[in-house]
Structure formats: structure tokens, C-alpha cells
Amino acid sequence: SSDSNLIRATIFPGDGIGPEIAQSVKQVFSTAGVPIEWEEHYVGTEIDPRTQSFLTWESLESVRRNKVGLKGPMATPIGKGHRSLNLTLRKELNLYANVRPCYSLPGYKTRYDNVDLITIRENTEGEYSGLEHQVVRGVVESLKIITRQASMRVAEYAFHYAKTHGRQRVSAIHKANIMQKTDGLFLKCCREVAEKYPEIVYEEVVIDNCCMMLVKNPSLFDVLVMPNLYGDIISDLCAGLIGGLGLTPSCNIGEGGIALAEAVHGSAPDIAGKNLANPTALLLSAVSMLRHLELNDKADQIQDAILKTIAEGRYRTGDLGGKSTTTEFTNAVCDHL
Ligand code: NAD
């Protein structure tokens, strides 16, 4: 019996710590009275020929139909020769931009107090096109694909994001001095879009220099846009600036208004099943999903409760130097609601 006033959203609990932190999101949402009905989907145990992956066609259809979802981390076995689950999702659902906000959490002290960065990562091509083969024995090749279409799309998204979120600056991160054709095309697209946004400062920064600047003084940056591989690495670096992977959310933006939120981190096999994971990253990802649905009151309420719990410091998980379990932390967030 489903209530027609409820918004349907897809949830993939995922692997490793995924089910534990997904449980935390469900508990917090139900305590906050969020009007969402979850359609729960698990990764299959055999390859679905329609997707060439362990993700079923029904799972993909669920996201396409609902247009919003939340995903836990999915483990990709190295060298097993089938398509990565994350790559399948990104390609099949055309999730072209991955947005990763990263800001200092009040009350949780790190080297920097005022980190406030947004990395926007191209999500469908670059080195992650999944096009690798052996040329001859002992020589392998991986194709880095950069297209005008995908670069324009992510650049447009980055500038639009900057404008609608009151941001001042967009930095395009690249290595066009070496990768002249690929990163060169990416930069050309960013420049073209930048011209349409004269109110936003545009700059180009070489990736190695960007890393050095970020760890020395993160306030030099505002919104960063970049090809796939660089985005993967830089966003983990940014997570490190504010206290680690347990804290940083992200949202994948797809064609036709699809939003699939997920934590930046992976399945954390070292702590899986032990009730030790920090659910904050997935909770904040769920909050970004609520903002996408324009359920801003609920989003604010939940975000405040999370930030208060962390600031108070009584209940913190191991990654933040505390002793609390996932359940204890989640209960504390619920108490603040
Ligand atoms: P990981 O992010 O799973 O773990 C890195 C370290 O961070 C570990 O020490 C882990 O315990 C810790 N950590 C991560 N999330 C945490 C949390 N919420 N609370 C506390 N500690 C946390 O990275 P990995 O070990 O390189 O990857 C493990 C698996 O996850 C691999 O199969 C990889 O392919 C997959 N992965 C999936 C995604 C995704 O689904 N988006 C992203 C990255 C990695």
C-alpha cells in the first residue's frame, strides 16, 4: 500500500559499510518525517545481459523513473574483467557531472578552519572510459577520451552552479601542457562557457600546482571543474582537508534532471559489518538529494542535526577520533531533530 503523497526515490544500500550507513539514513529520514518512500535495489549476484553488469535493468529503470536516488558505495573487484558498477551507473544514466561540496565542519578542528570548496568532476569519459586493451604482450593501452560535448556540458554545469550558488570563481584544472589535445579541448570548452559568465572570475590551473596550492591554502579556490581522473583525486584531497572521507557528500547530475547522490568514499572493507562507519557522508549526500527535491526545510533540519552532533563532540565515530558506533551517532542525530 503506497501513499500517493510520498515521493519515490531509489536507494542502493551497496556493499561493505553501505547497508549500515543506508540504515542510518533511513532512520534519520523517518525520524525527521521526510515524505519519501524508498525503492530499495541491491546489486545482483550474476551479470544481467541487458546491462552487461551486476546492476539489473530494473534498478536502472527505477532511477530513470524516480529521477532521484541515493547510492551507497559499490565495490569493484580489481582485474575481474567486468564493467565497474559505478561506471555502468554513470554511463547508463548519463550522470555527467559529479558535484562534491567540501566545507569545514564547525567544532571539528583540522589544519584549516575555512574550507569551502566545490569540485565538479566530469563523470563519463577521460581515463575512465573503460577502453583498455593489450597491444602486444607486455604492452597495454588505455584510451583517454575527451569530447567537446561532455566538456561543454560539465563546463556549463559548473558555471551555472557558480552563478546560482553565489560563487565568485571557477578554476579549470588540467594538464594541457602535456595532454595538449585532450586537456586542451577541455580548456577550450571551459573558456567558451566562461565568456558567457563575465561576472564570474575564470582561471586555469595546472593539476600539480593545484594540489600544492590546495594543501597550502585551500581558500585560494572556490569552484573547481575538471576531467574525470583529476576530479577523482582532487576531491579525495579536499576531503582530507576537512577531516576525511567519512564526511564528504556528493551528487551525480544526469541528463533529464536525474540526481543520484552518493558519498565520496568506498565500501571500506576494513571496517565493514562492525558498526564503526561514519554515516555523515551518506547522510549529507541524502541532504543534497532533499535539496534537489526542493525539500529545503527537511534538508536544513537534518543538516543542522548532523552538524550539531559533530560539533558537540560527545558522539563521534572512530575516523574522527571518537569511540561511538554508527548506531550511537545516528541516535544522537535523531535526538537533535
Ligand atoms: P574506501 O573509501 O572504501 O576506504 C578508504 C579508507 O577510508 C579506509 O580506511 C576506510 O575505512 C575509510 N573510510 C571510508 N569511508 C568511511 C566512513 N564512512 N567512515 C569511516 N571510515 C571510512 O576506499 P578503498 O579502500 O580504496 O575502496 C574499497 C572499495 O570501494 C573498492 O572496491 C573500490 O572500488 C570501492 N569504491 C567505491 C566507490 C563508490 O561506490 N563510489 C568509491 C570509491 C571506492
UniProtKB/TrEMBL annotation:
Keywords: Magnesium, Metal-binding, NAD, Oxidoreductase, Transit peptide. PROSITE patterns: IDH_IMDH. GO terms for biological process: isocitrate metabolic process; tricarboxylic acid cycle. Its cofactor is Mg(2+); Mn(2+). Coiled coil: none annotated. It holds the Pfam family Iso_dh. Residues 8-333 form the Isopropylmalate dehydrogenase-like domain. One of its GO terms (molecular function) is magnesium ion binding. One of its GO terms (cellular component) is mitochondrion. Belongs to the isocitrate and isopropylmalate dehydrogenases family. PANTHER family: DECARBOXYLATING DEHYDROGENASES-ISOCITRATE, ISOPROPYLMALATE, TARTRATE, ISOCITRATE DEHYDROGENASE [NAD] SUBUNIT ALPHA, MITOCHONDRIAL. This is Isopropylmalate dehydrogenase-like domain. It comes from Dillenia turbinata. The lineage of its organism: Eukaryota, Viridiplantae, Streptophyta, Embryophyta, Tracheophyta.
